[in-house]
Amino acid sequence: MNTRRFFEAMNEVSDKYYEEAANYASKRKSRSWLKGGYMAACLVVMLAAAIYALPNFLGQHGITISQGQPYLFGMVVKTQESVKFTVSLTDRTGKNVYCRATSVGGGDDWTRLEVELTPQAADPDADLRICWENAGYVCVGAVSLLPKDHFHGMRRDVVEAMKDLGIKVLRWPGGNFAGEFNWMDGLLPADMRAPFQSYLGLETQPHTMGYDFSEMNTDDFIALCREIGAEPFITINPCWNTPDENAAWVEYCNGDVSTPYGKLRANRGHQEPYNVQFWSLGNEFGYGHMEGDNTPAGYCQIALENGKKMLEASPGLSLCSSGPYPNKEWAEFSAKPLAGISQMISQHYYGYDPHYTDLSTVEEEYNRCMASVSRMRELIHQSRQWLEPSIRISMDEWNVWYAWYRPSSVTDGIYAALVLHMLMEEAEKSGIALACHFQAINEGMLCVKPDHVSLTAQGQVFSWMNRWHMGNRLCSASQEAVITVDREGRVSATVVNAAFHRKKPVDFSSFGPCSESVLFSSDTVLPPSSFTQSNVLDQAAGGTLQMPPHSVLFLRF
After folding, report:
1. Residue range(s) occupied by CATH 3.20.20.80 in the chain
2. Which letter, b or e, does each residue of 402-435 get, where b requires 16 or more Cβ atoms within 10 Å of its Cβ?
3. What are 457-489's pLDDT values in tens digits?
């Protein structure tokens, strides 16, 4: 079945065509067709290591539940005959039952069972228990447990926290995941999508064994972007997906109902085009770990073929090319030939990861991390030298290296503050069009736990930088200090003291009386740590202030 017929079939919403679509997805490349769990960013139930099973009984330990919170339970099953299922949330022993519901279903084809559960008690270590009465076989596909108020499978509190951060551009599906991703899988129900194995197994959660289960599709991603006020930035897979398939993705997002894929989107409940402006032609080609031709000329040919087809589907897109920038050979034989279709090039940078394993070297490790900000600036300047003036830089991955594998710390927060200041200073001078932090959830800005979400030190900096400077006119910027003015004439300033031991005197008496003054400080830079927020307006009344080591000061006049 070719691509065009596949989408025509999807428009008919027939079981026959869903079956053909599933066959289509399963034949792609050499991926395993696994019936994995439909995971949400909240309570995850997976048939993996944490699962326990007995005759007529299946369950999972370690579920965090809230009292009075309704949850939607779903399960895909195939049975020998109709079966009565009982689903319960209990304590670890199974003796205290917080809620229970029954459902009858099953048969010789896959069936989805759904019940609502509302526990009468909270428990951070509850059990999910699934029992059935009839004899015979029970095949279990996907199992999910979601709060009833979820947002497209995502926790509401996490979505609200992302909104509060002020994220203006959100990149998806990555990253290395983009090299394994096929957008067409998202047209199938979540429990029918083919999972894919990440290039690096350590990039996924431990219990998934290196697999990602493709819970988010294009419609979910666009909904998230709209909800938090961000522009979507989509990365195509130029090697596994053909130029026609990637152009189809563009048409699905931006085409009106007169186009085949615009009609498909409308038939799926989204009448108006999404109007996605930013698209990346792959991720990190040239480093050797992405499948496909990683030579400048080879990648250039692939990018040209895809970019031209995508622009035919939606003229005026802002396209971003990939490569190991800064690299003179790639600038000459890839970026320059692509200048006619691609206005941006992707650049990634991760600062030095401090190895806080020896207390005697803490200061040295901390200083190496801060010094790596200057290296980031040097690489931006180097790229600028080799690129055409019309080509802008998309700094679409940056963070402290391996920040996602350890608890966050004030070190990461100070680093983030310096980078944000540097990017504001360099944006116009070096032609930086976009900058995307890698990334919000559990890898930098937000720490998501089963029962709550909180800002990390990086998140604190991002949130306040957004509050202080977003939408303002830039007056002056350096790595240590940024000053902006809003439309009402209010002056906002942020100052960073990145020193490990030294205090930093700040004189702002020339700006007049200070109306707000907030200090982010900490006694330690070691993980886990975050900033203590203090109102220091009284201390700032005289127009001067002593900043403690590794701190950030916010001033408004």
Report:
1. 156-459
2. ebbeeebbbbbbbbbbbbbbbbbbbbeebbbbbb
3. 999 999 999 999 999 999 999 999 999 999 999
